[in-house]
Specification:
Elements: H1 18-22, E1 33-34, E2 46-47, E3 49-53, H2 59-77, E4 81-83, H3 89-98, E5 103-106, H4 108-117, E6 122-127, E7 135-140, E8 162-164, H5 170-182, E9 195-196, H6 200-208, E10 214-218, H7 219-227, E11 236-241, E12 249-252, H8 255-260, H9 264-274, H10 280-289, E13 294-296, H11 303-311
Parallel strand pairs: 3-4, 3-5, 8-9, 8-10
Antiparallel strand pairs: 1-2, 5-12, 6-12, 6-13, 7-10, 7-11
Helix pairs in contact: 3-4, 4-11
């Protein structure tokens, strides 16, 4: 039976590895409104809350996930909510910067990147698991690798072919690369160039197929796919889970306060906190997010991730 690892909280220990990480040479549709009918009160005009998310999993899964959430938020907030998919992580950050996306589900790195470009943007909610999130390293069973017991043992990956997920993924690139650096592994130590599969699901598939011997991805996605029996465990195995860090969260664009009032952040947070796994409709949404429940968060929770991002050149 495939065993799940449980990482210990990394917290401020990030600071101890920044010196090593710093040595790396790393390398429109705006918010819509519906014009009021002739002769009606202008106050009846409805504006749309535009939802976005980094495309970290299969697009069809994401469409279902965010459509259900949009319907739920629309009912709870009493305003139209529309989900707009984007092509890649950078597009989610750009959409947030321009105001085309007003409430976005970001990973820790993209959330920091987005907030740095939009004054007064706020991280407002995260899943309970995002307070102690982890990445996993997986290997094709033909690679001859065994389970690793420490960050330092990542050094055994030298000379292997290796892929990350998206270039801007926190759990599929930023933190795995930081832990590799702590183990003394640079990107040049892999066989050939390190790859970028695009998202967590694709990382599983390319390692499973043997296109790469090793890959790194979100532990959440790995657990969801293995629990659903969607991974061939005869072809790919989990070899290491990292220490924990803060990750995914919802970020509020301040333009929403202009549209819906200064309390819109509190109302959105209350809607997320209201999601109850004992309610079948709510449970479906929570399950799609891999969440037990949502809790409040704050910008300062991602300071360590920002430091690592700056050290490896993903934030300037």
């Amino acid at each position: 039976m495939q065993r799940k690892f449980s990482g210990k909280y990394w917290g401020r220990a990030v600071g101890t590895m920044l010196a090593g990480a710093a040595s790396l040479a790393m390398v429109s549709c705006g918010p819509s409104d519906t014009s009021a009918p002739a002769g009606s009160d202008a106050s009846a005009t409805e504006e749309t809350l535009t939802l976005g998310a980094i495309p970290d999993e299969d697009p069809e899964r994401l469409q279902r996930q965010y459509q259900l959430l949009s319907d739920y938020l629309s009912a709870e907030l009493g305003v139209p909510v529309e989900y707009k998919p984007v092509t890649d992580y950078a597009a989610a950050v750009t959409g947030f910067k321009t105001g085309d996306l007003e409430l976005v589900w970001f990973g820790a790195l993209t959330g920091v990147q987005a907030r740095l470009q939009v004054p007064d943007a706020e991280a407002i909610a995260q899943r309970l698991i995002d307070t102690e999130f982890t990445s996993v390293f997986i290997a094709n069973t033909g690679a001859g690798l065994s389970e690793l017991s420490s960050v330092e043992e990542l050094a055994t990956l030298k000379g292997k072919t290796f892929t990350f997920g998206s270039e801007s993924s926190t759990s599929g690139r930023l933190m795995p690369q930081a832990f590799l650096e702590k183990a003394g592994v640079s990107l040049e130590d892999f066989k050939g160039e390190a790859g970028f599969a695009g998202d967590h699901d694709k990382t599983i598939k390319v390692v499973e197929a043997g296109s790469y011997e090793v890959g790194a991805l979100s532990s959440s996605t790995w657990n969801k796919r293995t629990e659903a029996n969607e991974v061939d465990l005869d072809q790919v195995q989990l070899i290491f889970e990292t220490p924990a860090y803060f990750n995914y969260h919802w970020v509020l664009n301040p333009v929403l306060k202009e549209q819906f009032g200064d309390d819109i952040g509190d109302r959105i947070l209350a809607a997320f906190e209201k999601l109850d796994p004992s309610n079948p409709d709510h449970k479906e949404i929570l399950d799609l997010f891999g969440a037990e429940r949502f809790i409040p968060t704050a910008n300062e929770n991602y300071n360590d991730v920002e430091s690592v991002g700056r050290a490896i050149g993903k934030i300037r």
